[in-house]
Fold this sequence. Notes:
This protein is mostly helical and 178 residues long. It has one domain. The protein is built from 2 helices and 2 strands, in the order H-E-E-H.
Amino acid sequence: xxxxxxxxxxxxxxxxxxxxxxxxxxxxxxxxxxxxxxxxxxxxxxxxxxxxxxxxxxxxxxxxxxxxxxxxxxxxxxxxxxxxxxxxxxxxxxxxxxxxxxxxxxxxxxxxxxxxxxxxxxxxxxxxxxxxxxxxxxxxxxxxxxxxxxxxxxxxxxxxxxxxxxxxxxxxxxxxxx
Length: 178
């Protein structure tokens, strides 16, 4: 069978055209894929930068909260130290009889005891009846007030801590800096 040369030429021309179109489509798709990959990479970089910025902001907020809590703890410690020093000074003054504790007694409730009325030159109470406390009882009263003072200072520190955490948490939830 003889194949006419025109037919072979036409088939070859169609094959070359199809291969050229195939090659052209491959280049075009390759270019589109490269553009998509570039856009994807840029998007990922932007997301990474946004996440890093958000993480830095959260770290800054946490650091600010930690600094506020440390300052509050320092204040609490100073108050506690001062209260202990004051109580120790008071106990020392009671022990050396430099200071005596006394209580006011209602003149009608003396119960038959003869308690002398004492007045001081600069006192406001005129002829009030006062009774001096035994130093041991005075020491116990001072110890009780010392425990109460320390308890109040500790309570104030706890309240300040919770307030700082609550304020910091509320600010963090709203996305603000404390």
